[in-house]
Amino acid sequence: MAVLLQASNLTKRFGDVAAVNGVSFGLEAGTCFGLLGPNGAGKTTIIEMLEGITDADGGKIFYRGKPVGVDFRNDAGIMFQSTALQDYMTVREALEMFGSFYPRPAPIDELIDTCSLGEFLDRDSRKLSGGQRQRLLLAIALVNDPQVVFLDEPTTGLDPQARRNLWALVKRIRAQGKTILLTTHYMEEAYELCDEIAIMDHGKIITRGSPKTLLAEHFDEVVLQLPRADIPADPAELPLPVTLHEEEETVEILSRDINATIRILLDNDISLAGLQIRPRTLEDLFLALTGEELRA
Amino acid sequence: MSWRRFLAVLKARNREFIRDRSALGWNIFFPVLIVAGFAFAFSGKPMDLYKVGVYAADPVQKLAEVQKTQAFFRTDYIQFIPISKLAPAITKVERHQLDMLFDLDQHHYWINRDSPKGYLLERVLHGADTVADITNSPAGNFQRQTVSGREIRYVDWLIPGILAMNMMFSALFGVGYVIVRYRKSGVLKRLQATPLTAFEFLSAQVVSRLWLILAITSGVYAGADLFIDFSMFGNYALLLLVFTLGAVSLISLGLLVAARIASEELAGGILNVLSWPMMFLSGVWFSLEGTNPLVQKLALLFPLTHVIDAARAIMIDGAGLAGISTQLVVLTLMSAVFLLLGAVLFRWK
What we know:
The complex is a heterodimer.
Chain A: E1 3-14, E2 17-28, E3 32-36, H1 43-51, E4 58-63, E5 66-67, H2 72-75, E6 76-79, H3 91-99, H4 108-114, H5 130-141, E7 148-152, H6 160-175, E8 179-184, H7 187-193, E9 196-201, E10 204-209, H8 211-218, E11 222-227, E12 242-245, E13 250-255, H9 258-267, E14 276-279, H10 282-290
Parallel strand pairs in A: 3-8, 3-9, 6-7, 7-8
Antiparallel strand pairs in A: 1-2, 1-4, 4-5, 9-10, 11-13, 11-14, 12-13
Helix pairs in contact in A: 5-6
Chain B: H1 3-19, H2 21-42, E1 50-55, H3 59-69, E2 78-83, H4 86-94, E3 100-103, E4 108-110, H5 116-128, H6 154-185, H7 187-192, H8 198-227, H9 236-257, H10 264-281, H11 293-299, H12 303-317, H13 325-345
Parallel strand pairs in B: 1-2, 1-3
Antiparallel strand pairs in B: 3-4
Helix pairs in contact in B: 1-8, 2-8, 6-8, 6-9, 6-10, 6-12, 8-9, 9-12, 9-13, 12-13
């Protein structure tokens, strides 16, 4: 697939801090690319440089093979991490106003349908719930029928149900052929939505690839979780690779052979009543690559 | 410049203002308050210039008697107040609350030697009976001449200043403060991500506030005219031109202040620093005639000074276009400089 948007060696400093330090990547047309990392990793700075909101100190950005210009705004849809609309503006009025800024606005009825805004079209935008508000902001990002959609932490602060509703919308947009650049610190969100991800920390990309490929490259085991109380003796004495999570009062055991691990647990008179088995996640990958918990 | 984008922002800003009931209410209520205040303060007969207490056993009766026999007690613009207790009245003279006090029974009078009004009243007292008919009396080598004309009252002089001052507050705070709030809340950042240009956005803010200011100023003018018969000898179209240019220059000043600031507290402070000196040094309440020349020069830096000077020239002197051309040129230049600087310095974030 053709690369639609290309970032090449982007850098940005805020005083002594290198917020973005030589970052390069390309967005293939029609895919969803995720920038993952904890708060302060440089995700928002990168996305704002690509959007033209923040000037880069170094590096170049290309759109369809040419350096980005002012016209790129007509092709870009943007949903900021935190944003506000003018007061006393209804949902419909907000869509109409933003639509009038562009030469080829998307039909408003289509946006209302895509983002499920029909129930609260005439409501003051300040009186929307968190999920409704994010759907409106997503619709505004789509108001110019963009080729590239930037979504900066679109589900932060939403409850699980609202988050899943927004995921469904993002999938619908991707299915329409839009190219999406998403930032998030929710690994589950990236796994669910992204074709390709780049994991960032301290202003750099530390690895990139498809979520499944990355997990397969770095892990070949699953995780068995047991309540700490189900292991009478010291867990460290077990002949298994054990990690104790004292705060959560759980014990995690890495296993390449589940049957063999379970036999060892039974031989040590450990109850399996509370046993849970999960695959390795992007969260584990981040921990493995940086040595730190995700500071979400 | 895209008119479509300009009109979209203009419509949104107007809608925001009209739907904000508290702001709209205040913008309507405040001018009504001003008109009511003026109607209360300046309607009725002109106020007396001096207050003279008259004490006697029966002060009302005694005052009526002396008014028949002594010219001083018939002098216009002196309010004669019957007094029944002498001691408190003397205290009032000491405190300049009474300019003079008579004890008609004992034939005494009191003045405060530190009171200019008392000094003048005493001169009038001594001259009044000897020069009962002033029209035929000699005054040294001077021959009496008379002219006639309508009085320019304080209210006639004050109304242009009040209209302009009201305009100033609306322009500075209604635009500068709003833009800073937009920047702080992220509204501007969201608009920056669209093809909307800073010029289109700023122009829409200027026009939105301009029509509002002109509508409110016209309303205050009409309302005040209903209750107070103030002077207007000039051309209404010219007055509208002055207020339009004045409003544009003051709105542009508000834009300049808001060009980069993201703190409402700082913006409020700067707007106060600008508006208070303008309110006192631009001649809203009193003439700067006779004040320190440096202060008079400083006042010329304020757009409000030129708005008020031009408005007074039109309303009180009936000045035409030529008579206020200097003020019009200065206001145009100020508007251009403020707008240009504001647009150059403007930052969305």
